[in-house]
Write a structure and sequence with these properties.
By secondary structure, the protein is an alpha/beta fold. Helix content is 43%, strand content 20%.
Amino acid sequence: MNYKVESVNPYDSERPKKEQVTHMFNMLAPTYDRLNGVLSLGIDNYWRREALGVLKKYPHSHILDIATGTGDFAVLANRILSPEKITAVDISDGMMAVGREKVKAKGYENIISFENQDCANMTFPDDTFDTAISSFGVRNFEDIDKSFSEVLRVLKPGGVFMFIELTTPEKTPMKELYKFYTDNVMPVLSGIFATEQKAYEYLPNSIGAFPQGREMMLILKKNGFRNIRLRRLTQEITTVYIAEK
């Protein structure tokens, strides 16, 4: 099955989404952390902490961080969960290069490692990880079903998949405030930071096309996950999804 978000691309409709997303994040890598914090008004760290706190009651010795970007979620997971190992994967070498420097500066190299892996076709053996996590990366997937099936495959029995995604608020007045922010404020901020304008046109478009709430829970169920639930944060701007193998 194809989902609307899979056809939302940063640049054009001709090239594969994976190729375009890789190029976009390689270009954004030098300024990504700074701009991401500004665009989220600093709330993104709160969202990540809240999401990771859910995992404390589950086994988490070996964590897979999918679409790790510059490694912020992996670093925070290490701080909150104290796992034995975190394997951080992404398709953007530019973003991971920033992440490796960050991990090195914090002295976490023995715990956090980075690998270029496509989450729709990972090379890890079956039943490798206790937990899989992702922070604002699932809407960039080229094939959600294939990627979710791969996550299920590499998780150990009873393992947990937890991911955070931005969502479109449905209630007034947050719905109107969100639209004003994405239509007017976000382009100005991205221009100030001299980033690719296409990247921050892609952001609200991909959020709007992303399967949300019950629809996403049904997708997880279809791909073999169980005990699926969600938690809304900051008046539905962000949603945390938790599913078990």
